Amino acid sequence: MTITTEKTAAGTGASLAVRAAARSPVRTAVSKRRRKIMNTLVAYSFIAPNFIGFAVFTLGPILFAFVLAFMRWDGSNPMEFAGLDNFWRLFSDRVFQAAFWNTIIFTGFVVPLTLICSLGLAILLNQKIFGRNFFRTVAFFPYVASLVAVAVVWNMIFNPEFGPVNMILYTLGVDPSNLPGWAADRHWAMVTVILFSVWKNMGYFMVIYLAGLQGISAELYEAADIDGATPWQKFWRITLPQLAPTTFFVSVMLTIQSFKVFDQIFMITQGGPGTSTLVLVYHIYNQAFISWDLGYSSMVALVLFLLVLAITIIQFRWSQRNEGDTA
Amino acid sequence: MAGISLRKLRKTYGELRVIHDIDLEIADKEFIILVGPSGCGKSTTLRMIAGLEEISGGDLVIGDTIVNDVPSKDRDIAMVFQNYALYPHMTVYKNMAFGLELRRHPREDIDRKVKDAAEVLDITHLLNRKPKALSGGQRQRVALGRAMVRSPEVFLLDEPLSNLDAKLRTAMRAEITKLHRRLDATFIYVTHDQVEAMTMADRIVVMKDGYIQQVDTPQVLYDEPANMFVAGFIGAPQMNFLDVIIRKTAGGFAAEYEGQLLPLPEHLARAVAGHEGRSCVLGLRPENFHERPPVDVDPALTAPVEMSVELAEPMGAEVHLNGKLGSHGIIARVSPRCRARTGDTVPLIADLSAAHLFDKETEIALRTGRPAH
Known about the structure:
The complex is a heterodimer.
Chain A: H1 2-23, H2 25-68, E1 71-72, E2 80-81, H3 85-92, H4 94-124, H5 132-144, H6 147-157, H7 164-171, H8 189-214, H9 218-227, H10 231-242, H11 244-259, H12 263-268, H13 280-290, H14 294-321
Antiparallel strand pairs in A: 1-2
Helix pairs in contact in A: 1-2, 2-14, 3-14, 4-8, 4-11, 4-13, 5-8, 8-11, 11-14, 13-14
Chain B: E1 4-13, E2 16-26, E3 31-35, H1 42-50, E4 57-62, E5 65-66, E6 77-80, H2 92-102, H3 107-121, H4 136-148, E7 154-158, H5 166-183, E8 186-191, H6 194-200, E9 203-208, E10 211-216, H7 218-223, H8 228-233, E11 240-249, E12 252-257, E13 260-263, H9 266-272, E14 279-284, E15 289-290, E16 302-314, E17 319-325, E18 328-334, E19 345-351, E20 356-359
Parallel strand pairs in B: 3-8, 3-9, 6-7, 7-8
Antiparallel strand pairs in B: 1-2, 1-4, 4-5, 9-10, 11-12, 11-14, 12-13, 14-20, 15-19, 16-17, 16-19, 17-18
Helix pairs in contact in B: 2-3, 2-4, 3-4
Keywords (chain B): ATP-binding, Nucleotide-binding, Transport
Pfam families (chain B): ABC_tran, OB_MalK
Protein name (chain B): Sn-glycerol-3-phosphate ABC transporter ATP-binding protein UgpC
């Protein structure tokens, strides 16, 4: 019954349009254009609330920071145009250089270590083992727990004098004079924040890897069983290539996240001792809100932005080259 | 030598038993097809033979060895999966070479075997492509090729044609049959399509609910089904079943169907002798209804019936009449010259020389000896 009604309505509409077209082709063209504009406006009105928020709170400040990078400004006095002065300052700023290399080192270790740990965890917790859900929750917990709380606990566990980690190392026979000073030691502080970051984030990326693993058809493993593959061969020749898109996503997210690390460092070492764990965002923070040198800090932020952009482009290129390998 | 024996083979999932102690002897180089509706256990049986499912009870013997605990890779089998299970990140060549590479065959040896198999299957031009860039039929060939290169004693095929379109399926049917002859290996093939089973198999295993119903050659299954399930499953359109009562007549025995006496042939009459008044099910295939008296059948074994047509399906070479014979729905297969339309009542001749008779309770076929033709 409904179908008949629709058909009739459509038929009437079509015949009206035909008649109108026959009467005045120009008028039809105009009304068609008007309808198209209306449709477009309606569509934009749907995304407007979100876009306005984005423009005011994200896009605007970003563009403002780009402008600020070429200004001198302390936040209260009027801005002055500085040209490339802020840029040249980067080359003489030893703290910036330390922060730059610290960020590279931090990222260089955190990305592969988190990848390996989260993939390892995902594979382990994808097996049918007893208490699987419990262990999945345990692994995910650091990610959801409050950073402040876990950082305090971490500092206690890794306390050089009273922490259980050093006590265990001592019991295992490590000489007391060789026990690592962890966050308090300029040689160990970076290791400490890297370990903390890996531990805090691996649960999240484990969940992403778990989803990736469950997307691999069980038939592929059965075919590999019949082809005679050992578990190790199955991992290298099937699991890993099949997870390539997941690994790409995880590595891009991790790289960006590591380049803009701040809170974890703030909670554990405050960038110290000395500049041993000072990273770019920490430097930006210090310059902007401790020294109130907003122009220079924006220039550092610009450098960080370009660095992340360059690396992400390289990652995308690399993944495009290997595209089609996994679908 | 790779005969396969299933001895009281059983599969249970917890309390649920899905394969009930089945026995089956598969001869070396035989093409055997497991057929049955969804959930009958045919795929599970195949997967137990493949080593992909644990065997819950009984023994699986390949050659002379019990292989219950032998891993798949050491059973000298190859398998073709329903969804092909090609490795998506490898080229066709790599897909086919993978098993040999894992077994550390020399490179030249692998290359020769892959290329030989590709030639047989006519996929040489696809060797550098990834599975994504292949059509369903091409993927099917690659899956067959991957199984072939290892020259196993036993090929296991799990509904390999079910994802192909009808035309391609018919073509691949013939190719797989040829491949079986060429490879000279044992083929165990699972399908739910009785046409595939009838056209390809040396012997067919009909399964239902985890039990084997009958094992025999396609023609014997068709002519002498062991029970109503097999009779209904094999043959398309399926066999017509009529509720009848056995009566003794002057000439022998007859089946009374809604007041009409249908004469029974000798081999059925002997089976029901002394059981006058017993309720049975009479089975007549659609081709046992004719518009004219058949010339090669004893007129004493035919009966005129009237069918009210509900739907006439022209198939080109024949017409399938769907309708009622008394209160039972039946299908008759008649010549394309038949002009019957919906609502018509057509007189037909039922040929009872090829009739089947089943016990109404047990559904087991009643017969002594073979049909006369």
